[in-house]
Amino acid sequence: MSTVRRQIDLQVAVNAVSDVVQNRPKPIRSIDQIYMKTGDMVMQAELVAHWADKKKLAFIGDGDAISVCVAYLKSEKIIDYGPSQITVFDFDERQVQAIKSFAERKHIRHLDAELYNTRDIFPKANRFDRFYTNPPWGQSNDGASVHIFVERGIEACGYGGQGMIVIADDEELEWPKRVLYTTQERASDLGYFVNRMQPLMHSYHLDDDALLRSCNLFIEALPGNPSRGKSKAVDKERLKNFYGRDQNLRMRYIRSNRPLTLEGADENEWRPEYYEDTE
Amino acid sequence: MSDIIHPGAGVLYMKVGTHAKEGLAEIIERKRREIDQAGFAMWGYGGSTCYPTSMVQPFARAFAAKNEPIHLVMHKMNSRHYAEQVRAARFSVDGQKWETIPEAINVLGSRFALMIKDLREHEDELDLGATRVAVGRNEGRLGSRYVQGQADKACLIVTEPELVNAEHKKVKIDLVAELIDPYAVFLSER
Questions:
Q1: Predicted model pTM
Q2: B95 touches chain A (CB under 8 A)
Q3: Domain for residue B2, yes or no?
Q4: Do B138 and A245 touch (CB under 8 A)?
Q5: Structural domain harbouring B118
Q6: Domain for residue B1, yes or no?
Q7: B 112-151: CB under 8 A from A
Q8: How many domains does chain B have?
Q9: Does residue B3 lie in a domain region?
Q10: What confidence tens digit (pLDDT) does each residue in B118-166 have?
Q11: How far is CA B103 from CA A255, B40, B85, B90, B100, in A?
Q12: Is residue B5 part of a domain?
């Protein structure tokens, strides 16, 4: 039985999410890192916290840092529900470091992150109750990018539990409908059914995406759903057009060149211009 | 409809004006000189709507595979772009391997550049309601829906005009150029 939701102090919640946003590295567009708008992050984090209350939750990729928001809202007692354990699996070392560092500074003991690429064998199968993923949206490969992230989430949950998948949702465009269809089909093949869908929920920081939204697609394992075997590496044929047309998955990890600086701008972004009459 | 803008044609639509404190007339004159000297010019731009590797290059390559050109079609507008006139020193096709920009080419205050030739004045009209976004997340969206608000450039395929309930939004085209391989590149000041 999950905890009953009460009204939250919106100002305190937005400020907490603002702390998380400040902690994130800048997005890399070429690998589809596009950040959700902050208001949507607040709503999403509260929703995820309630959905995964008292559960072990795996994030299969998490550029947005929803995982951190979920953990932080609970640790700051802004909400009194949330997962008992959160582990983020992401191939961007900057993100992993940012999450670990935030968890350490804020004394959030139930939040952790590991460097992992979804192409590789999943290292912690059958240890979670829920998974969350906001994957590359698969517009150029009929959703194969989404399917791979979902498969890893399902492995994390040992072919049981539930998953929340954040993918494109649009009333005008054809490709999001195809991806929604193939994702439901793939989930069904693996013994899951769609138990809820929240359409047109989130918007993103992109100057060309004023219209595009994403939805929450909730899936749940059929009772007694059997395992489909051990986790395997993904065949390279499935990596084509992973991030869009002609954008194959080639990078195993994004490595961090420098420690995350939280206090201000990167030194490469600015230069001083001094007064001549002062020393 | 024209030789450049007709059903099936690929166009990269862009609103252009002052850039990095330099007026459009001066930019055009400078770019033409560069084309005369180097055989091509780099047309600087920014924003994320026409990202080189995920948008412009796949779009242009798809047309090149059909032996069809992609034209940059530009609408003149008043703009205030006050970025510093910092010359890009290197360019990269993939964001990984970098090459020195030839001395004859000066591209200023931009993150990306289109590779162009045959830059010329050309009066035309583009009905954005008779276009669809060609690539990216908005692939298939009506051009007139897409090019609104802050979107000031787009990779578009010209279609037959929609017959019913279409949003007709015709824009004047003042300037055109042809994109050449590698179509769009990243720039670096260092």
A1: 0.83
A2: yes
A3: no
A4: no
A5: 10-188
A6: no
A7: 135-142, 145-146, 148-151
A8: 1
A9: no
A10: 999 899 999 998 999 999 888 898 898 888 765 789 999 999 876 655 5
A11: 34, 12, 16, 11, 9
A12: no
